[in-house]
Amino acid sequence: MTSSTIINYARSLRDLMEYHHAEADAITARDILAFLAEREKSIGKSTLNTLCCALKYFFGKVLGDPDRILAKINGF
């Protein structure tokens, strides 16, 4: 993973936590979908894809909870 990818992924997670005023481990699948729906209105498809990849990575690999995110955003 490149340094710019790490920075973008960290920003994505920070934005999600700020949006919900919660720590990442307290954010539910429904919270994630609400955040993505809101962000989709103001960002391009490429940026939205990066955001989804960041959240998939964090919840799937870092927290070890892929069920919280993968099935929810694969169709987003």
From TrEMBL:
Record carries keyword DNA-binding: yes
Stored InterPro entries: CB (IPR044068), DNA_brk_join_enz (IPR011010), Integrase_recombinase_N (IPR010998), Integrase_SAM-like_N (IPR004107)
Domain Core-binding (CB): residue ranges: 1-63
Keywords associated with the record: DNA integration, DNA-binding
Molecular function terms from GO: DNA binding
Source taxon at top rank: Bacteria
One GO BP annotation of this record: DNA integration
PROSITE patterns xref list: CB
Transmembrane segments: none
Descriptive protein name: Core-binding (CB) domain-containing protein
